[in-house]
Structures are given as structure tokens and as C-alpha cells.
Design goal:
The chain is α/β, with parallel strands linked by helices. The protein contains 10 helices and 8 strands. It has a single domain, classed as TIM Barrel, CATH 3.20.20.
């Protein structure tokens, strides 16, 4: 019997014209059959947490996760940079995310804030800085009862820790309850040789999953083996959320929500 839950990724509430539009999207997520929602938040200091909490409570959806990487593109925040000031402000940002999550307990998705090779061409140096930062933020998260979900991101977007094996090694070496890992099917399709086999080896530290089609459109429009993937999650006893992310489409968002959930009902009855 399926133990995991489905959720849907929505943009930063600040990107909406008004709260009514966000509320309508949340209602659609709920009506489509999701059990939670995930939000992209650029900076928790600029996020109206109380207003968002009221919207979520009204529709009856918990906030299962928050994506933290929005300010890499807009402000250059990253953990690999040789410039200590950049690293320190990025760590401060992540500590702010931890403080926010300590209240409502969503997972914190961390991937893009590692940075790219243009930020640090020396891979070994960049990885060492990232590991040091993750230990610091992971210890802070552990003390606050918060979990960071470290995400393997394709080399086309992030310069470090692109595979499940690489992220698993960092998480296991840190050995912190507040630092675990997640997977994203879009990134897996690019970086992994096998789309299912790596999951069993990380079952004990896997806390979150992103379901994203191979072309980033609605689920079912690419070639990801969705049914087999969900069956493997069930086999290994995964109990977290599977968040659907659609990032490359011409369809209206609410149509995407309905299409994705209709597809998942056929793949995982």
C-alpha cells in the first residue's frame, strides 16, 4: 500500500498578482487530489509567513517543503564561492530558512545554492566549501528540529554533487539528523545510468522526491518511467512527499495541476 503523499510545487507567493490568485491555485491543488504543497521562496525575510499560513489552513494543505535556491540567479548567493562574504551571506540566508521552518516544519530543499563552476572552477575547492557550509547549516538545522533535503542537480545547472552517489556520500559523512537527501526525476534522467537502482541504497536517508518530466512539461508528456519509479518508491518503503514540478509548459498552471494528478492516478492507483 502506498505510504508516500503527492504534493505540487507552486511559485513564490510574491510572484502572484495578489493573494486571491494564490488561494485559487491552492484550492486547485487540493481539489486535484494532492495532500500537500511545496513553495518556492526566495528569501524568508521577505515572505509573509502568517498570510501564507492562513491560506494553507483555509484550504487544508500542509506545507511539505520549501525551495531555497531562488536567490542564486537573482543575487549570486552560493556556497562554493571563493569570496567568503558571499558564502557567509548564503549561510545566513539558509539559517533564516531554518528559523522559518522551525515553526511549521517543512523540509528545506537545497540544490542550486551550491553554485556553478563559473563561481568556482576548481571542483575540489568548491566541494570542500560546500561540505563545510552544509555541516554548519546542518548542525543549526538539527538543533532546531529542521531537515534539509540535499538535492543532486544536473551538471547543466549546478557545478557540484550532481549524482545520487555524490550527495549520498556528503550526507553520510556529515551524519547529521538535520541533513538528508532527496531526488528529482528530471536530474536523475540526465545524471544516473539506472533510473531505479540507486533508490534502494539511499532509502534510509531519502526524505523528499521531485516528480518532474524529462522535458519539464506535465507528467506523461515525456519518457520518464513514472509507474515503475513509483512502484520502486513503494517497494523501498518511502514515506515522504512526491512533489510534482512543471517548469516548461505553455499550459495554464491549473490545467497542469489537473493533468498531472489525473496522470498520477493512472500510474499509482
Amino acid at each position: 500500500m502506498r505510504q508516500y503523499r503527492f504534493s505540487y510545487v507552486l511559485p513564490d507567493p510574491r510572484s502572484y498578482r495578489n493573494w486571491d490568485d494564490l488561494d485559487a491555485d491552492l484550492a486547485c491543488v487540493k481539489e486535484a487530489g494532492c495532500q500537500a504543497v511545496e513553495l518556492q521562496i526566495a528569501d524568508p525575510a521577505e515572505f509573509d509567513a502568517d498570510r501564507a499560513a492562513r491560506s494553507l489552513e483555509r484550504v487544508g494543505l500542509p506545507l511539505c517543503a520549501v525551495q531555497t535556491g531562488g536567490t542564486y540567479a537573482t543575487r549570486g548567493n552560493c556556497l562554493c564561492a571563493a569570496d567568503e562574504a558571499v558564502r557567509r551571506r548564503t549561510i545566513a540566508l539558509l539559517r533564516g530558512f531554518v528559523d522559518f521552518a522551525a515553526g511549521c516544519k517543512p523540509l528545506l530543499v537545497l540544490g542550486s545554492l551550491q553554485g556553478a563552476r563559473k563561481d568556482e572552477p576548481d571542483r575540489l575547492a568548491g566541494e570542500a566549501r560546500i561540505r563545510e557550509a552544509l555541516r554548519e547549516v546542518g548542525q543549526y538545522a538539527t538543533a532546531k528540529g529542521v531537515t534539509i533535503a540535499f538535492e543532486p542537480v544536473t551538471h547543466e545547472e549546478v557545478g557540484f554533487h550532481n549524482t545520487i552517489a555524490e550527495v549520498q556520500r556528503v550526507v553520510r559523512e556529515a551524519a547529521l539528523p538535520g541533513l538528508r537527501m532527496m531526488v528529482d526525476t528530471f536530474h536523475m534522467n540526465i545524471e544516473e545510468r539506472d533510473m531505479l537502482a540507486p533508490l534502494a541504497g539511499v532509502a534510509d536517508i531519502l526524505v523528499h522526491v521531485h516528480l518532474s518530466e524529462t522535458n519539464r512539461d506535465v507528467l506523461g508528456e515525456g519518457h520518464w518511467p513514472t509507474a515503475a519509479f513509483l512502484a520502486e518508491l513503494e517497494r523501498i518503503g518511502y514515506r515522504g512527499c512526491c512533489s510534482v514540478g512543471v517548469y516548461n509548459t505553455r499550459r495554464p498552471r491549473r490545467e497542469c495541476i489537473r493533468r498531472c494528478m489525473d496522470f498520477l492516478r493512472r500510474q499509482a492507483p
